[in-house]
Write a structure and sequence with these properties.
By secondary structure, the protein is an alpha/beta fold. It has 9 helices and 8 strands.
Length: 230
Protein backbone atom coordinates (compact mmCIF):
# COMPACT_ATOMS: atom_id res chain seq x y z
CA UNK A 1 0.00 0.00 0.00
CA UNK A 2 1.32 3.41 -0.98
CA UNK A 3 -1.51 5.78 -0.09
CA UNK A 4 -4.47 6.27 2.23
CA UNK A 5 -7.38 8.54 1.43
CA UNK A 6 -9.64 9.79 4.21
CA UNK A 7 -13.12 11.19 4.54
CA UNK A 8 -13.17 14.44 6.53
CA UNK A 9 -16.51 14.98 8.32
CA UNK A 10 -17.26 12.39 11.02
CA UNK A 11 -13.94 10.68 10.30
CA UNK A 12 -10.96 13.03 10.63
CA UNK A 13 -13.11 15.92 11.83
CA UNK A 14 -15.83 15.23 14.36
CA UNK A 15 -18.78 17.44 15.11
CA UNK A 16 -18.44 19.65 18.17
CA UNK A 17 -20.37 17.24 20.37
CA UNK A 18 -20.00 19.28 23.60
CA UNK A 19 -21.51 22.31 21.83
CA UNK A 20 -24.36 20.19 20.45
CA UNK A 21 -25.00 18.65 23.86
CA UNK A 22 -25.20 22.07 25.50
CA UNK A 23 -27.70 23.17 22.85
CA UNK A 24 -29.74 20.02 23.33
CA UNK A 25 -29.89 20.54 27.09
CA UNK A 26 -31.12 24.11 26.62
CA UNK A 27 -33.94 22.68 24.53
CA UNK A 28 -34.88 20.11 27.15
CA UNK A 29 -32.96 16.93 26.28
CA UNK A 30 -30.75 15.15 28.79
CA UNK A 31 -27.85 14.55 26.45
CA UNK A 32 -24.11 14.28 26.94
CA UNK A 33 -21.42 14.76 24.31
CA UNK A 34 -21.20 10.96 24.04
CA UNK A 35 -24.96 10.79 23.52
CA UNK A 36 -24.65 13.22 20.62
CA UNK A 37 -21.80 11.24 19.11
CA UNK A 38 -23.76 8.02 19.21
CA UNK A 39 -26.91 9.70 17.89
CA UNK A 40 -24.91 11.12 14.98
CA UNK A 41 -23.53 7.66 14.19
CA UNK A 42 -27.00 6.11 14.32
CA UNK A 43 -28.37 8.76 11.96
CA UNK A 44 -25.43 8.22 9.61
CA UNK A 45 -26.23 4.51 9.60
CA UNK A 46 -29.60 5.45 8.10
CA UNK A 47 -27.86 7.13 5.17
CA UNK A 48 -27.29 10.73 6.28
CA UNK A 49 -25.78 12.96 5.14
CA UNK A 50 -26.96 12.14 1.65
CA UNK A 51 -24.98 13.21 -1.43
CA UNK A 52 -25.91 16.58 -2.94
CA UNK A 53 -27.41 17.85 0.33
CA UNK A 54 -24.41 20.12 0.97
CA UNK A 55 -25.54 22.28 -1.95
CA UNK A 56 -28.92 22.92 -0.30
CA UNK A 57 -27.84 24.03 3.18
CA UNK A 58 -31.19 24.56 4.90
CA UNK A 59 -32.61 21.27 3.64
CA UNK A 60 -29.45 19.50 4.70
CA UNK A 61 -29.45 20.92 8.22
CA UNK A 62 -33.16 20.39 8.79
CA UNK A 63 -32.91 16.79 7.62
CA UNK A 64 -29.63 15.72 9.16
CA UNK A 65 -29.59 17.64 12.42
CA UNK A 66 -33.34 17.31 12.81
CA UNK A 67 -32.84 13.55 12.74
CA UNK A 68 -30.05 13.81 15.33
CA UNK A 69 -32.31 15.91 17.55
CA UNK A 70 -35.08 13.34 17.21
CA UNK A 71 -32.65 10.57 18.14
CA UNK A 72 -31.89 12.25 21.49
CA UNK A 73 -35.57 12.71 22.27
CA UNK A 74 -36.39 16.27 21.23
CA UNK A 75 -39.91 16.96 19.94
CA UNK A 76 -40.76 18.31 16.50
CA UNK A 77 -40.59 22.02 17.38
CA UNK A 78 -37.34 21.60 19.29
CA UNK A 79 -35.88 19.59 16.40
CA UNK A 80 -36.40 22.55 14.07
CA UNK A 81 -34.91 24.96 16.60
CA UNK A 82 -31.93 22.64 17.08
CA UNK A 83 -31.30 22.33 13.34
CA UNK A 84 -31.58 26.08 12.74
CA UNK A 85 -29.18 26.86 15.58
CA UNK A 86 -26.64 24.38 14.22
CA UNK A 87 -26.98 25.83 10.72
CA UNK A 88 -26.37 29.35 12.02
CA UNK A 89 -23.29 28.22 13.95
CA UNK A 90 -21.91 26.25 11.02
CA UNK A 91 -22.39 28.97 8.44
CA UNK A 92 -21.46 31.81 10.77
CA UNK A 93 -18.07 30.51 11.92
CA UNK A 94 -14.86 29.88 10.01
CA UNK A 95 -14.42 26.39 11.40
CA UNK A 96 -18.06 25.31 11.02
CA UNK A 97 -19.49 22.49 13.13
CA UNK A 98 -16.99 19.81 12.08
CA UNK A 99 -14.18 21.41 14.06
CA UNK A 100 -12.88 18.80 16.49
CA UNK A 101 -10.13 16.54 15.21
CA UNK A 102 -10.65 12.86 15.95
CA UNK A 103 -8.78 12.15 19.21
CA UNK A 104 -6.08 10.07 17.57
CA UNK A 105 -5.93 11.86 14.21
CA UNK A 106 -2.72 13.87 14.66
CA UNK A 107 -0.68 10.98 16.04
CA UNK A 108 -1.92 8.51 13.44
CA UNK A 109 -1.27 10.86 10.52
CA UNK A 110 2.24 11.57 11.76
CA UNK A 111 2.97 7.84 12.02
CA UNK A 112 1.64 7.15 8.54
CA UNK A 113 3.76 9.96 7.13
CA UNK A 114 6.81 8.50 8.86
CA UNK A 115 6.09 5.24 7.05
CA UNK A 116 6.31 7.14 3.74
CA UNK A 117 2.64 6.73 2.94
CA UNK A 118 0.97 9.33 0.74
CA UNK A 119 -2.14 10.80 2.34
CA UNK A 120 -5.16 12.56 0.90
CA UNK A 121 -8.70 13.66 1.74
CA UNK A 122 -11.84 13.13 -0.34
CA UNK A 123 -14.81 14.93 1.19
CA UNK A 124 -18.38 15.80 0.29
CA UNK A 125 -18.23 19.33 1.66
CA UNK A 126 -19.23 22.94 1.07
CA UNK A 127 -15.97 24.37 -0.19
CA UNK A 128 -14.36 24.85 3.22
CA UNK A 129 -12.92 21.47 4.11
CA UNK A 130 -9.32 22.46 3.43
CA UNK A 131 -9.69 25.48 5.71
CA UNK A 132 -11.35 23.33 8.38
CA UNK A 133 -8.54 20.78 8.27
CA UNK A 134 -6.05 23.62 8.66
CA UNK A 135 -7.92 25.02 11.65
CA UNK A 136 -7.81 21.58 13.28
CA UNK A 137 -4.06 21.32 12.67
CA UNK A 138 -4.33 18.46 10.18
CA UNK A 139 -3.96 20.01 6.71
CA UNK A 140 -0.18 19.68 6.39
CA UNK A 141 -0.38 15.90 6.57
CA UNK A 142 -2.09 15.65 3.18
CA UNK A 143 -0.70 15.75 -0.32
CA UNK A 144 -4.13 16.58 -1.71
CA UNK A 145 -7.57 17.58 -0.46
CA UNK A 146 -10.51 17.08 -2.81
CA UNK A 147 -13.64 19.00 -1.79
CA UNK A 148 -16.75 17.93 -3.72
CA UNK A 149 -18.05 21.48 -3.90
CA UNK A 150 -14.85 22.63 -5.61
CA UNK A 151 -14.42 19.50 -7.74
CA UNK A 152 -18.12 19.47 -8.77
CA UNK A 153 -18.34 15.74 -8.30
CA UNK A 154 -19.47 13.95 -5.15
CA UNK A 155 -19.01 10.62 -3.46
CA UNK A 156 -20.04 7.91 -4.19
CA UNK A 157 -19.12 8.81 -7.78
CA UNK A 158 -15.84 6.97 -8.44
CA UNK A 159 -14.45 10.00 -10.28
CA UNK A 160 -13.84 11.95 -7.09
CA UNK A 161 -11.66 9.17 -5.68
CA UNK A 162 -9.76 8.86 -8.96
CA UNK A 163 -9.12 12.60 -8.95
CA UNK A 164 -7.36 12.31 -5.59
CA UNK A 165 -5.38 9.27 -6.73
CA UNK A 166 -4.27 11.06 -9.89
CA UNK A 167 -3.07 14.02 -7.85
CA UNK A 168 -1.03 11.71 -5.64
CA UNK A 169 0.27 9.71 -8.60
CA UNK A 170 -1.01 6.42 -7.18
CA UNK A 171 -3.14 3.67 -8.68
CA UNK A 172 -6.27 2.39 -6.96
CA UNK A 173 -4.66 -1.00 -6.33
CA UNK A 174 -2.04 0.71 -4.16
CA UNK A 175 -4.44 2.73 -2.00
CA UNK A 176 -7.25 2.45 0.50
CA UNK A 177 -10.01 4.74 1.71
CA UNK A 178 -11.44 5.32 5.19
CA UNK A 179 -14.86 6.89 5.83
CA UNK A 180 -17.92 6.62 8.03
CA UNK A 181 -20.72 6.03 5.51
CA UNK A 182 -21.29 2.63 3.91
CA UNK A 183 -23.24 3.80 0.88
CA UNK A 184 -21.22 6.94 0.19
CA UNK A 185 -17.68 6.20 1.37
CA UNK A 186 -17.19 2.45 1.31
CA UNK A 187 -19.24 1.61 -1.77
CA UNK A 188 -17.94 4.63 -3.67
CA UNK A 189 -14.32 3.83 -2.91
CA UNK A 190 -14.75 0.19 -3.85
CA UNK A 191 -16.37 1.21 -7.13
CA UNK A 192 -13.20 3.21 -7.83
CA UNK A 193 -11.09 0.12 -7.20
CA UNK A 194 -9.79 0.95 -3.71
CA UNK A 195 -9.81 -1.17 -0.61
CA UNK A 196 -12.25 0.56 1.75
CA UNK A 197 -12.63 0.60 5.53
CA UNK A 198 -15.66 1.79 7.43
CA UNK A 199 -14.78 4.08 10.33
CA UNK A 200 -17.16 3.05 13.13
CA UNK A 201 -16.03 4.39 16.53
CA UNK A 202 -19.53 4.09 18.00
CA UNK A 203 -19.92 0.44 16.97
CA UNK A 204 -23.17 0.95 15.08
CA UNK A 205 -22.24 -1.63 12.43
CA UNK A 206 -21.44 -4.73 14.52
CA UNK A 207 -22.68 -6.92 11.67
CA UNK A 208 -19.55 -6.09 9.67
CA UNK A 209 -16.87 -8.60 10.52
CA UNK A 210 -14.35 -7.27 8.03
CA UNK A 211 -13.45 -3.91 6.53
CA UNK A 212 -14.28 -1.94 9.67
CA UNK A 213 -12.07 0.06 12.07
CA UNK A 214 -13.19 1.34 15.46
CA UNK A 215 -10.46 4.01 15.57
CA UNK A 216 -7.97 5.66 13.26
CA UNK A 217 -5.23 4.03 15.32
CA UNK A 218 -6.43 0.65 14.03
CA UNK A 219 -5.20 1.68 10.59
CA UNK A 220 -1.62 1.40 11.78
CA UNK A 221 -1.82 -2.39 11.82
CA UNK A 222 -3.34 -2.41 8.33
CA UNK A 223 -1.20 0.16 6.55
CA UNK A 224 2.22 -1.12 5.56
CA UNK A 225 4.63 0.92 3.49
CA UNK A 226 8.32 0.88 2.84
CA UNK A 227 10.18 2.55 5.66
CA UNK A 228 12.25 5.60 4.71
CA UNK A 229 15.79 4.65 3.74
CA UNK A 230 18.50 5.80 6.12
Amino acid sequence: MRAILFDAGNTLLHLDYPWLAALARRLGARASADDLGRATAEVSRMGWPAPKMQRRPTEFFEGYFGAIAEAIGLGAAAQRTFARAVEAEHLGTREGMWRRAAPDASAVLATLQARSLLLGVVSNSDGRVEEQLAAAGLRNAFGTVVDSYVARVEKPDPRIFRLALDRLGVGAADACYVGDLLGVDVEGARAAGLVAYLYDPWDVHPELREGRVRSLTALLSLAVAKEPSS
